[in-house]
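A quick word before the example. In earlier lectures we treated sequence and structure as two separate objects. From today on, think of them as two lines of the same record. Here is F-box domain-containing protein written that way.
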Amino acid sequence: MATMEQLPYELLYHIILLLVQSPGGAVAFARIISVCKMFLLFAEDKHILKLVNFDLRMKFKNFYRYQHLNSLLIKCSGAGNEAARFLLGKVILVSSSQLSVSEWLKVERDNHPCDDVKLCDIKSILATDVPGSDRKVGSFLTYFLPENLSAGRFSQTRLVHYQLVKLFLSKGSHHDFIKMDIFLKSYIRYFTKVGEYSCVFGYIQVLVSQAHHVRAVEKLVKKKELFMDTYRELRAVHLHPSGYSSARRYLMMNSVTLFYCSQLVDRCRTLGLNWRQAINDEDFAEEFWRNGTSHLLDKEYLVFNQVRAAAVNCFERDLYKFKHFIQDL
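And the structure line, produced from the sequence above:
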């Protein structure tokens, strides 16, 4: 029986290509190149590295394994693997947050006060199980400094930190922004030392808020029970006997319920119906859920992408703020 090493090179190459593109391809590839010198040669093939499939839904605490310069993630990013670069952008965000936590721990030891906003963010970061302090994180992030690229200290294929974060901003889904919200804010605080007062910080806040809105509308459209609950909540407001209580309840509605209200009014206008009468009709609600909500998500995705484009443009304008680490990295 022939062993893997005895297979024709072309066949073995094809097998490796299938392996790296399969679900969990990055993990499987990392394992085989660590046990066989012949397979290790494939880790230098740029075509293979460009196709390696990474798990983009990885938990934050697992990013820790990629914080060394010889990782497969770094090799694949250098070869132009977009998925690898996207994941590396996440690793950069988490890594800068680790340094923020380290700074905070030092401040705590020195008994210096910490503002409430930053303290809240630090606690949120610690709640994600990301290690708070690690000496190797600083040396890892040094690899992504732009001045090291211009000085020729590292390979010219290496990307710098703000390029990777920009890729994340450009390609991330609304779910990505919800999950990475705290790390994005920490990154901006760490590199600009301006934080909440920077233009890009404001855009990130709006972008994350819109991401939450998209997710809520997504659930509203896809889950009939949730949709009908929202419909009944809206109807209850307009049937309430007290005008004051009705107005107060209306103001207490969440943004998704108010969004639903505006879409319902538009639907009634299109059909030539009185929306105050339609809102009391359960059959109308059923019809609206089946036929009138198909375009709602498309509208929300459009708004989300418009806000994202504005955030990316602002990020590009402010790149000079991100080009240098603070002293004593």
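Notice the following. The chain has 19 helices and no strands. We will return to this example when we discuss secondary structure assignment.
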